[in-house]
Amino acid sequence: MRIYDIIRKKRDGKELSDEEITFFVDGYTLGEISDYQASALLMAIFINGMNRRETVDLTMAMARSGDISDLSAVSGAKADKHSTGGVGDKTTLIAAPIAAACGVKVAKMSGRGLGHTGGTIDKLESIAGYKTDLSKDRFIEITNKTGLSIIGQSGNLAPADKKLYALRDVTATIESLPLIVSSILSKKIATGADCMVFDVKAGSGSFCKTTVEAQRLAQELVAVGAYAGKKVTALVTDMDSPLGYAIGNSLEVIEAVEVLSGGGPSDLRLLCVEIAAEMLALCGKGELEQCRGLAQKALTSGQAKKCFVAMVKEHGGDTKILEDTSRFPRALYSYSVKAERGGYITAVDTERLGIASLLLGAGRTKKDDRIDYLAGISLRKKKGDYIEKGAELAVLYASHGNFDEAAEMFVSALTFGDEAPKISPLIIERTYSTFISSQQKPIWNRISQ
Ligand code: URA
To answer: Which residue, of 20, 76, 104, 220, has the fewest CB within 10 Å?
Structure first.
């Protein structure tokens, strides 16, 4: 087999076989296929697409390119959740403990933030002492003991994706549905959970800027996940506004603890209950409505918070600050952003808010950048709110004390008008797994080996 022939076949719009796809993924991961040939194939896939079968084979080849986590030592049903990335998205810190409090195990490997979106691992590391790098045995021990454990992704998880994503990033081949689906799902399949809930964000703070793009991604994740033998549900949710009011690592942990303590912003609470309820339903805990009731009870009874605190303790984190969030360290400097005119906030460029937070030091533009856990934005007003001229829109926090660029970016993200805007629903759509017929089973058997 020659990579040249595979490139030519896809260039001419033909379907690649499983063997050809596996040859490409394995060869590129091992360094036997060059960047220029891999780039040519990626561009051919970008232009001519892949059918469902090819996408399944690409996903599985990428999942198999490194370690596949074996969670058989974790007792009971195992669920995972994944967000495609947004601003102020701290749902894992809440939905995972809710699911754990209701008897589902969550052994989760999360990522760091990059660009304008945050990452769960950075948020957890803003809790003093919390270790995100644990041995596999300890990860499983904590999951069995507390119901959940959240660690960083192992170095050898879907290495094909790591290499291919870096190449797509510099060859203008990111925005391809089969490439995005295989990238997201290969990592999730390699982490070993049986049930997965995807939170596919749609809007200005997401990489899917339109609802239609997010719906297509959700449908494809669910369908390809089902062929991979996983139970998958996807929610398409609004990211035209940040979730909650806090953006930035320790600010977001504080807000998550507020929700776990029975308070916090209603949009954040609602979405976390829905994600957790879908995780419970996938794991056989009942019908969705029943699972929603279980999830709400786990929050109001304090059981979800107990699970979160127990996990943080097992990871070596400081739990005193979770019991009293006023003990969380605060940034050295703060800056109040005031409205230059009165009116309704009619639109928010949420990506710009994420960039403002990054400029304050809360994020990184390169993988190895250091971040300031205390930096970020505390919103006072959100889309649809009415504000008087001169009233406070937000408080920016940073340890470097230079707010000019971030404040300018923040202000440029907001549009004001005289009429209240239409607010889209937070949960736009739900997509459930489709039945895999017996004729399709041979494919299923092959890919789930
Ligand atoms: N997130 C991923 O992990 N991969 C993509 O290709 C896009 C978003």
So the answer is: 76
